[in-house]
Fold PucR C-terminal helix-turn-helix domain-containing protein.
Amino acid sequence: MTTAGGLPDFLAAQGPRVAAAIGEALGGHPAHQPIRRTAGPLFGGREETAARLLALVAAGGPLPADDLARFRDLGVMAARQGIPLAVLSEVWDGALAAAARTCWAGAPAGLFTELAEATGRAARLAGRAREACIQGYADAPREGVRSRPLRRLLAETLIDGAPAEVIADAAGVALAPRYLVLRCEAPGLGAAAAAHWARAREHLEAIDGVLYSGDLAELVALFPAGDPVRAEVLAAEFVAVLATWTRGPVHAAESCRADLGGIPDALEEASRVLTVVKAIPDAEDRPYRADELLVELAILGQPGIRERLAAVLSPLDAGTDLRRTLEVLLACNLDRERAARELWIHRRTLHYRLDRIRDLSGIDPSSARGIQLFRAALTSARLTSLERDGRRAEEASLPPPLSA
């Protein structure tokens, strides 16, 4: 049995509740306030916006041109405020989910069929509105590919595997036929991070056609790779300059595919390589490729081998600073004079420690086989430590259990 007044009256009555639910769902989001400031003047406030859009869903017609223009303006203003497109999408999806939950929670059983149809119409309207918003985001800069918002928008679209040609055409930008994907991290910069990022961003923007997203804590840069060798040189130069500014370490990995559609796969490979780069004790401040770290990548996916490598290091815990000695020796490219200086010990002390490592483990770190095995073991141990720290960070971000 259908409720008196039917679906239109029901949706009209939900306006205040939907507006309140959206506010509650987004209240803690870091981009909520800037987006609220942006959207408020365009739609006349949250309740007015909710009522208008619910009425359009009930009517079942297409979005009027005037409303599409408002959503386009929302995209323009978001771009000019520097709100990343991915963040804008998160807020958008959160608002839609809150609105749908609220309507379904209060719907009488007699309206379920009509509400299901209306939900489908709402999804189509939301898709059209989102397209208009992205169009405005792309049109906002009016500065070609040198615009920061446009660089970020195109990079994020390509990374997501979505077609970016429409956005590029709207902004009058020609995309490269393929890109080298660089994943880069410069950890531990502290208060100097903003200043270093400003310099790094200027360096990237001076290179024709480079697209990027993120910051120095987690940067993804796309270098046009019509000439792959040139792209590799530019990526290596950027990482080297960044390491000079920040005084290292800078961890970086790169990958390239044959066309734009391969960018998500290239990013996935570069991210996997970067995980290993952060673990190897003798990592240099340069981009690494997967084919340079095949042994380490194989270790990454073999828990059994990692356990056996951990057993190689365990005897060293009977001595003092023996693991650290191996790490520094590898980081110094096996230069014992330099390693002794870095460890603040006499060279004879370094020789004594290496002999102690040999006696405890049965593996000679002075041999090619021995140092290779210790390098693999140290890399495996550091990978395990990074994974453990990552799990702890993830657990720390979770809400407390219900029992709390």
Notes: The mean pLDDT is 81.
